[in-house]
User: Fold this.
Amino acid sequence: MTKHIVCDSGSLISLTSSCLMDLLYFFSKKDIKFVIPPAVKEEAVDYPVRRGIKRFLFSALRINNAIKNGTLTAVEDPGISIETRRMMELANNMFFVRGKPLKLIHAGESEMLVLAHQVGIDYLLIDERTTRMLIEAPFRLKEHLEKEFGINVMINKNNFKQFREMFGSMNVIRSSELVMLAYDYGFFNKFEDMKKQVLEAALYRIKFSGCSIGFDEIREYLRG
Assistant:
């Protein structure tokens, strides 16, 4: 049975910047399909290409090639943008500091959540910590924000309830966990006796490319 994963721009850029784009092709042969909404395509592909942003151009072209050959599906649904505005208002008026709402998610993350909810996809590929914690551990996010701002963070209970009902059961993975899963499925077997060393190098590379994985997490996985 085909499994679908909705991706954010950060995770795709992490993979391409780490020379790990082949993971998408590897998993696509195992009936795992990667999907992106319009705002993610704009952020990861269209904008860097249109503006000629050298820092992100190579990643943008590789992601665009994956779209062209069908490895990555770019959804073009104008209905997403309408629901996205409501979703951004919901999420960005959930936590308050000194009576002012905290802006937690942007258009790309919002469209990703809306798309997954609309079509019934339960898996999200997200490297960005705030969005991931908002889905997986909102009270830990509250504690983190309170430490960051040094003040109590208030919650709009109605918005919180609506968000949890829509997205609380979704499964969130990072690009680092995609690397680990690829290792378990034999992606690194071509390196033979060096495959564990290559895995370690890949995990550190993807961490320094923007994936929020801790050094202790990497060491723990390598011990396993």
